[in-house]
Every structure is written in C-alpha cells, then in structure tokens.
Amino acid sequence: MDDSDVVTMTLNDVLEFEDEMIENTAAVLGAANDKNCSYNEGYLKRQALYSCLTCIPEAKTDPSMAGGVCLACCFHCHDGHDLIELYTKRNFRCDCGNAKFANSGSKCTLCDSKDEANELNSYNQNFSGTYCVCHRPYPDPEDPIPDEMIQCIICEDWYHSRHLGVEVPEDNFAEMTCAMCISKHEFLLHYDGLTTTKLSNTDEQSEVDVTAEENLNRAPLTGTLCTKPRGKSEKMVTKFWLETTWRKQLCTCDSCLKMYEQEDVAFLLDNEDPVHLYEEKSKAKAHAVVEDQNKQLLNSMDRVQMIEAIIGYNDLKENLGNYLKKFAENKKVVRVEDIEEFFEGMKARKKKKVEMTYSCR
Predict the structure, then answer these.
(1) Phi, psi of 359 (to 5 degrees)
(2) What is the pTM of this model?
(3) CA 250 to chain CA mean position, Å
(4) Per the omega criterion (within 30 degrees of 0), is the bond before 220 cis?
(5) Average pLDDT of span 228-233
(6) In the prediction, which pLDDT does 43 show?
C-alpha cells in the first residue's frame, strides 16, 4: 500500500464520528433494558433485536427458522455468539430459549418460563443476514460501492438506495415504502399526493387530489364517511412519504379500518410506531440515564472528593482541549504517541502540584 492509498482523519473527523456513533447507539438501544429479558412485556411495539446464527445455523439459509433475541439476552445468553444486529423490529416477542433453540440446547438464563413459540412474530431475510432485492449482507465485502441503506416502514427490510428503482429525494421525505409492499397494499396508491411521486397527467392528478367537498358527497360506509381519495396512481413503485404526519391523513372509516386489519398494516395508524419517534425516546432515555448516573456519582462523594473531581475534570478538559486544538487548526492526524505524550505531561504536572486543603467554617 502506497501513501496514496492511506486514508487519514483529522481530530474533528474523529470527534464527529464518535458523536455520531454515540447518537446512533442511543437511538437504537437507549430504550432497551440490558438486564431483563423483554419476553414478559409481550409483543413490544418496537425493540432492538438480534438473530443468533450460532444457536440456529439453519437461519443462514432459511429466515423462518431464525429466532430473535432481545438486548438483554444478547448480553447474558448469547455472549460471544455469531449475532446479526437487526436494528429494531415491531410487534416482536423475544424467542431466546424457546422451541426454535431446541437443537442448540440453549436456554434463556433470564426468563425460564416461555411458550414454545411466539406465533405473532414475523421473520424476514434480515434474520439470515441478507438485505434488499440483491439479497446481500451488509456491509457487503464484495461490494465496493458505498451506498445508503433505507428501511421500508411496512416489511422492515433494508434497501440500497440504488436498488429502489426510483430517485431518492435528498432530505424532504419522512418514511419509505418499497415497491413490493406498494403492490401488496394497493390502497396506498390512493395517497400518491402525500409522496414525492407526482402524476404527470393533469386529469389523473386531479383525481388523486380529491377535495374535501367531494369526500363529503360520497356515500357513507357502515355509517362513516370514507375520506380515502378516489383517484388511484398506477405507479407501483417505491414511495417516499413527504411529511412525518402523513399517516394521520389515512382514512379511518369502518371499511378502511377493516381493510388495514385484513392486510396486517393497522400499525400505520399507531402514533408510536414510526422509527424516528422510537429513536427520539431512546435518545432522551439514554441521556437521562447518563445524567442520573452522574448525579449518583456526585452524591456518593463527600465535599472534598467532589471539589477535587470537578477541578480534575475541568483541568483535564481545558488542557486536553488546548493541546488538541493545534491538531484541529492544522488539520493534522492525532497519533497514539501524541495522546501518550499529553498524559505523561499531565502526570508530571500532578506530581509537582501543591496539595490543596479545604476547611469549612
């Protein structure tokens, strides 16, 4: 490898990457319990899940054989195993130790009383470690092209942006529904006006954008007016929904509610279902836990220890900031030797520092 192949990062790059990693981790795991199996909570609306290929190697080729385990079981029952991180899944109950794990002999060490199977759980190809229409792993060691992965809100599979068959909008979309799910749930074609996909034909567009007056003139269905637009797009392609509130504009008449249940998409009407809301709650919980831990640590100290800790922290923060500032300004890479040099200097300063005494009057 020559110098042209070496990729370097500045201090700012490292700090930004670290902050992003912390935020992403908090978004997924912040609301999860890492000590207690989630099984007794039933089918959670959304939770972080993992598929264990060590216990169920058959899942590598058949996702229906897979078992999904919660965060706590990932730590306590499957530590060191070949685990696939599934991000989050909706309406799922932890499988750890049930009949799916019978061949491995693996038992749940956190909850030993479980049904043989969780009949309402669903398993897609992600449980086998493959994604998208290309059915490849992520990250893919054989794919040199960097690409964004976007999750479909219905099937919850992840897709490479270049494999969606349509142009991905830069920022102005809230959620995505893949073309396959659109073809399965054709009622969504009536709501094309809420997506970035616009019909080019003037007459067809007018049918999609049904006015409120036209809706009121419709015949009532089982005593309730249907507000679903009468126009229907013929484009069964990936849809990017424009607003975070688009779900609230879905019709909730008796007929449509029955249809949602039959097509198993009633979760679209659940205010707590969207992933971004789960992420926001997770981040808030993670930050609250950190703050609580900090308070407990300070409360466990006496006055002298607390003052010394605060002085020490501020001293470290100020000196490290000043030391690394020159690297950021000059866009230089921070080497291990540089960090070792800094802390060696801090140790030397500490030895020379005159011990302070405190007195209370």
Answers:
(1) -140, 145
(2) 0.70
(3) 24
(4) no
(5) 92
(6) 97
